[in-house]
Design goal:
Elements: H1 2-12, E1 20-24, H2 28-42, E2 46-50, H3 53-63, E3 71-74, H4 77-85, H5 94-97, E4 112-124, E5 147-149, H6 154-167, H7 169-181, E6 185-186, H8 190-199, E7 204-208, H9 210-219, E8 224-227, E9 237-244, H10 251-261, H11 264-273, E10 277-278, H12 304-317
Parallel strand pairs: 1-2, 1-3, 5-6, 5-7
Antiparallel strand pairs: 3-9, 4-7, 4-8, 4-9, 4-10
Helix pairs in contact: 1-10, 3-4, 4-12, 6-7, 6-12
């Protein structure tokens, strides 16, 4: 990739002895090896602060222009949106933003999606005959006590925020109330939902697609499969992403890092190691439906940040938190 080569050449010759500081909302287990590769290939030292994406977004807002961070590498677009709305992210070069579909990046070019996670209904293979086309089908009587959700999980709350943007506050409130009345089984995270589905404890649950892929990588074939909704907020694809802090003193190295995340090598890593979708145009994703096949709702993903508190309140008011 010519952009990566040119930026790395500049960065390697920059003469700076300071480490590039990355605030990473992605866990060290998932992205540590990739960051190690970047250091090895470029000679640029990276100092990483790992924490939750929401926590890091709040820290960046508090630190403002005095933040030591050069790059914010976040797990979700809502956290990136929060930092962007604070005016803390610099516009990225067009040579970087042009690599990624505008659908999976900030509309003002302040961050780019680096990999994608599709919302799905993981289903027991014995229950797939009654898979609904949209999340509204989950309020049916046949799902009473058989649906798994993780209402405190960030991905679930971001999905509810997307529903607010796509379908409106009242429709979202009505759906949450109906889900609550249908006695869902509550979990702390996505992985236990997938495990319970494969065991037949529940018929299915709302998760990100890659959790089933990880279970299959660990155990082989399991009695569950991912069901992709045909439309609406249930078909949301949420990218992890990265942006460069406007206050960074290492903008060239920061651009090299973001560019590296979009290189063919890194995109292949996300597909093969974390089972996520590549966001760079023209690169194939994991087995199954590709991003072009998923009818993800059209919205500015940075706007998720503006309704995330409302979404959390609605989930709580429904008695799910």
């Amino acid at each position: 990739m010519s952009l990566l080569i040119s930026v790395l050449a500049i960065a390697a010759c920059s003469g700076s002895d300071d480490a590039l500081t990355v605030y990473s909302g992605r866990s060290e287990t998932l992205v540590g090896p990739l960051i190690d590769r970047f250091e090895e290939e470029t000679g640029i030292e990276v100092a990483v602060r790992y924490a939750g994406s929401t926590e890091l977004a709040a820290t960046l807002a508090e630190e403002g222009s005095n933040s030591p961070a050069d790059v914010f590498f976040a797990q979700d677009p809502a956290s990136l949106g929060l930092v962007a709305l604070e005016g803390l992210l610099a516009p990225l070069p067009s040579d970087i933003t042009s690599l990624v579909s505008p659908h999976f990046s900030d509309s003002e070019g302040r961050w780019v999606g680096t990999s994608g996670r599709a919302r799905v209904l993981v289903m027991s293979t014995e229950a797939t005959a009654r898979a609904p086309s949209a999340v509204q089908g989950l309020i049916a009587e046949e799902w009473k006590g058989r649906l798994g959700i993780a209402p405190s999980n960030g991905s679930f709350l971001a999905f509810v925020a997307a529903m607010v943007l796509v379908e409106g506050e009242e429709s979202t409130k009505d759906w949450l109330d109906a889900i609550a009345a249908n006695d869902p089984v509550r979990f702390e995270g996505n992985a236990p939902i997938v495990a319970a589905t494969a065991e037949g404890t529940i018929d299915g649950g709302l998760v990100n697609h890659y959790y089933l892929r990880r279970l299959q990588a660990e155990q082989g074939e399991v009695a569950a499969e991912n069901w992709f909704f045909s439309s609406g907020a249930g078909a949301l694809v949420m990218p992890a992403g990265a942006g460069i802090l406007a206050s960074s003193d290492h903008a060239e190295n920061a651009a090299a890092f973001v560019s590296f995340l979009l290189s063919e090598e890194s995109q292949a890593y996300f597909v093969e190691e974390t089972f996520e979708y590549p966001t760079v145009i023209g690169i194939d994703g994991p087995e199954g439906p590709q991003l072009d096949d998923i009818n993800s709702p059209s919205l500015d993903l940075s706007e998720l940040a503006s309704v995330l508190d409302l979404a959390t309140d609605l989930v709580a008011e429904a008695g799910l938190l």
